[in-house]
Amino acid sequence: MMKQHEDNYERTVAQRIRERIMNHPPYIDKGARILRTGFEFVAYIIFALINRKSPKVHLPPINDEILLDSAVDLARKIRERIYSCEDVVIAFMQRIQEINPLVNCVVDENFEKALDRAREVDDFLDTTDKSVDVIEKELPFLGVPFSCKDSIAVKGLKQTIGLMSRKETVAEENATAINALVEAGGIPLAVTNVPEVCLWWESVNPLHGRTLNPYDSRRLVGGSSGGEACLLTSCGSPLGIGSDIGGSIRIPAHFNGIYGHKPTFSIVSNSGSLPDLRGEMNEFLVIGPMAKRAKDLRATLKILGGEVGRKKLQLDKKVDIKDMKFYFMEDDGGFPLISPVDGDMKGALFRVVNHLKSHYGVEVEQVCFSKFFHAIEMWSLKMSAVEEAPSFCEELANRKGEINPFWEMVKLAVGKSNHSFPAIAVAMAEKLAYLQADTKYQRKIIEGCDLLREEFQCGILLQHLLGENGVFLYPSYPHPALFHNQAMLMPFGFAYQSIFNVLKLPVTQCPVGLSKEGLPLGIQVYIGFVVSRLHNDHLTLSVAEALEETLCQWVPPCGVAVGEN
Known about the structure:
Elements: H1 2-21, H2 26-52, H3 71-79, H4 85-103, E1 106-109, H5 111-127, H6 132-138, E2 145-149, H7 176-183, E3 187-192, E4 204-205, E5 209-210, H8 226-233, E6 240-244, H9 250-256, E7 259-262, H10 281-284, E8 286-291, H11 295-304, H12 306-312, E9 325-328, H13 343-360, E10 364-366, H14 375-384, H15 392-396, H16 405-413, H17 421-435, H18 440-458, H19 462-466, E11 470-474, H20 495-503, E12 507-509, E13 511-514, E14 520-522, E15 529-531, H21 537-550
Parallel strand pairs: 2-3, 2-6, 9-10, 9-11
Antiparallel strand pairs: 1-3, 4-5, 6-8, 7-8, 7-12, 11-15, 12-15, 13-14
Helix pairs in contact: 1-18, 4-5, 8-9, 11-12, 14-18, 14-20, 16-17
Protein name: Amidase domain-containing protein
Pfam families: Amidase
InterPro entries: Amidase_dom, AS_sf, FAAH2
């Protein structure tokens, strides 16, 4: 009876949404889908031909076992004096010096101060009377180097967000999240590349250039935490801090085959992060951890969220996977402007689903939330509805007036613009959207979005279904990493992530091996992310940790030559 009620409610909501949003004949959808499919096919052929003979950049092999350790294990080995902190910092410094000329992920470094701090840590450990257990409790990440994206302030390092106008801007203080890690003993090592103002799915800008994917340098790394994900998977840092307003942690984590976590909103402070958002947009944006190893996510989140966040998110709670409920969805229902999920991604999803069934003996139920069809509209309109927020044109001008995107496009054509094509295109789209503001059609879309938001924030279906011990498996993107610039022709795949920013739910991104082309797949693909109710971050993290033990391991983008000389 309850199931029938849910199905009836689902159909009723879907019907109301479609009446308000999609008030046009069905053949419009079909026509748009046919045009998009043909366009993408031609674009793929063109990009494949262009890149067919382009040489790939190959990273040097990993030749130091320090580079392979998790942040948690490094902290333990430093405390126990298995490694000196200085040796650890030097190992990652040298790795950055090896890889950065090849993939261009680091935009500023803190090497000298990091080495000084490492020596201080070694001196402290050599002379302290404190036990290893006490040190672990007081300074859980003592001596562990870490990195973060350029938009998050690290005192003394550049904070440019990819803008030429901020070329010489240096952060005067640490962001709150960075301070938390430093107070836990962490050592800032570097900051990494982002797209302009962190609003694009490829990490490229006129100031620092383009970051290349370590698995295939012809491919993009994602954005906006793309430089960070690239550095982590290349073993240039054991731990990273990113931010996410529409998939900016999860898309790069997916494209680079690592773990990433978007926490429940308001747990981790955004103070010191750019752009400085206001109103509800500041709740859509979250700062979270990224790493090669799943267990580093929980350990880092305990620090970033403080004691209050630790308790709210139940991060010390033990979870038995066999007692959990699992649900999954294959796609968004076929929004006509978004690519369908490809075969490799579906294979990754069903590999995880079948693994959960066979290894843990749990049921995994396929469901359909028809509301996800409208994810891109919901995110876009909620982002633009925050009246007190500066426009993207103002952000590109560093909030000193605003750019004219149409004139900037003319300047770009003759090589005179200080902005990238994607940034200018987004700004133009924003201007054109303003021309349509408050039209009858726009009001219908907003009303439909309010229906979506009301249902999810009240949790009428999702929370009833998931309960207190359920998670939802969903693609994090329709396909693996695209070729450079291809995202401009296929821009809407981020809807698979952005829906959960609007809903403010916790999400964990997990890798699930490589595609036949050698590109990362994973929970960032069809088991793209693990989604749960507000403050149930411990569930998604527990699933990631369990899957890492038996299926979802990080796969290095290069050879491993540890022990070879």
